[in-house]
Design goal:
Helices cover 50% and strands 16% of the residues. The protein has 305 residues and is α/β, with parallel strands linked by helices. The strands form two sheets. The chain has a six-stranded mixed β-sheet. The chain has a two-stranded parallel sheet with strand order 1-8. Strand 6 and strand 7 form a beta hairpin. Helix 1 runs antiparallel to helix 2, helix 3 runs antiparallel to helix 7 and helix 8 crosses helix 9. The longest helix is centred in the N-terminal third of the chain and has 24 residues. Keywords: Sigma factor, Transcription, Transcription regulation. Belongs to the sigma-70 factor family. ECF subfamily. It comes from Micromonospora parva.
Length: 305
């Protein structure tokens, strides 16, 4: 007879989605976020329950601290990364898109902006602006004074405000543009691609030195359109054009594309739009090490509550 999970395990499971959501936003990596959550479970398993008044706050504090430690270590590796470093994409279930704040906070564009913060600034920003933790709770999580946390929160908030996308398209508009882009790219329709792209569109590609991708951002509608119009005519990562498949999915809270062939995912493509509904930025992740979360089909609930 299977023994039901004990109360401590039930408490941890109840907050597991929240812990992953916090860790993923701090780290930008699903694999590292999962490791941080597992480490939090180990800490939780050995904790003195008599000293835990609020399990949710306690667990959030643990996973935040662990995520910051991991991010500091990861930053050293990212400094020698080949080409642009982009966050690891994850499939989401639509709940994050139910609230604009949730969807924006986990978008590829926002995670790219968060990469420009220090690990401490990033953790403070995520906990304060996304999860609405108090300054006192954050101070305990990052082991700083409350006054220092307030200063860090202000500095991080102003930095993100300057860097963040200026316009957030509604979901139906995003989906419509993504569907048209998919049809145009797979059909080699250069004219439609040019209509969809802003004149100063920027394409960021992340191959991590594992697969052939642009090592610098590609700018300008004609160049970017030509890049995607060739999808149906060239062999990519050993996948012949007739074997390449593209589907529309939800990634990081917004409609996006997954390209796959011969039994493996080869790339994800995410878009940012301007107020006119034109694509201003494209983030393409093709590093195989960053596609496991999408390839295994795991859907993540990344809402903030």
């Amino acid at each position: 007879m299977t023994r039901p999970p004990d109360a401590d395990e039930q408490v941890f499971h109840r907050h597991r989605n929240l812990l992953f959501s916090v860790a993923y936003r701090i780290l930008g990596s699903a694999a590292d976020a999962e490791d941080a959550v597992q480490d939090a479970w180990i800490r939780w398993s050995s904790a003195d329950r008599a000293q835990v008044a609020d399990p949710k706050a306690y667990l959030a504090r643990i996973v935040s601290n662990l995520a910051v430690q991991r991010l500091r270590s990861a930053r050293q590796q990212r400094e020698t990364y080949v080409g642009p470093w982009l966050p690891e994409p994850v499939l989401t279930d639509g709940d994050a898109a139910d609230a604009v704040t949730d969807a924006e906070s986990v978008s590829m564009a926002m995670l790219v902006v968060l990469e420009t913060l220090s690990p401490l600034e990033r953790a403070v920003f995520v906990l304060r602006e996304v999860f609405d933790f108090s300054h006192a709770e954050i101070a305990a999580a990052v082991e700083r004074s409350e006054a220092a946390v307030r200063q860090t929160a202000h500095r991080a908030r102003e930095h993100v405000r300057r860097q963040r996308p200026r316009f957030t398209a509604d979901r139906s508009q995003q989906r419509g543009v993504t569907e048209r882009f998919l049809a145009a790219a797979t059909g080699g329709d250069l004219n439609t691609l040019l209509e969809l792209l802003s004149p100063d569109v920027t394409l960021w590609t992340d191959g991590g030195g594992k697969v052939r991708q642009a090592l610098r951002p590609i700018r300008g509608a004609e160049t970017v359109a030509g890049w995607f119009a060739a999808i149906g005519t060239v062999t990519y990562q050993g996948v012949q054009p007739h074997d390449m498949r593209a589907v529309l999915v939800e990634i990081n809270g917004a409609p996006a594309l997954v390209f796959s062939g011969v039994g493996r995912v080869v790339a994800t493509v995410c878009f940012d739009l301007d107020a006119d509904g034109r694509i201003t930025t494209i983030h393409t992740v093709a590093n195989p090490d960053k596609l496991h979360a999408v390839a295994d089909g795991t859907t993540h609930h990344l809402a903030t509550r």
